[in-house]
Amino acid sequence: MTTNKQLREMAEDVAHWGISIADAWPSDPDFNDSWAAGTIDEDGNKFPVIEVDVDQYDAPGDSEKLARFFTAASPATVLILLDEIERLQAECEELRKDAALSGLPSDRRRR
What we know:
The protein is of the alpha+beta class.
C-alpha cells in the first residue's frame, strides 16, 4: 500500500499536469466504450492525456466512471486531502494530550 508520504511525492511530481486533466469525454463520439481524460480549451479543442478503455473487460460504463474519477482526483485535490489529514492528525494528537492532562482514565478518553 502506498503511504501518504509516497502519495504526496507522486502528486507533487505531477502537480503541473493538474490543469491538463480537467475534462472527460468519449474518445469516439459513436461509441462510449473508450473515454479520454484531458482538457478542452475555450474553442472546444480536445487534448487527451489519458485514454481509458476498460469496458472491453466486461465492465460496461466503467471507462467513463474511471475517466471522470481521474479528472476529480487531480494532484491538487490529492494534496489538499493530504494536508487535511495531517491537520486532523495534529488536532487529534493535541486532544489526546489535553485528555491525558485532564486526568481522565484512558478508557474514557477513547469514547
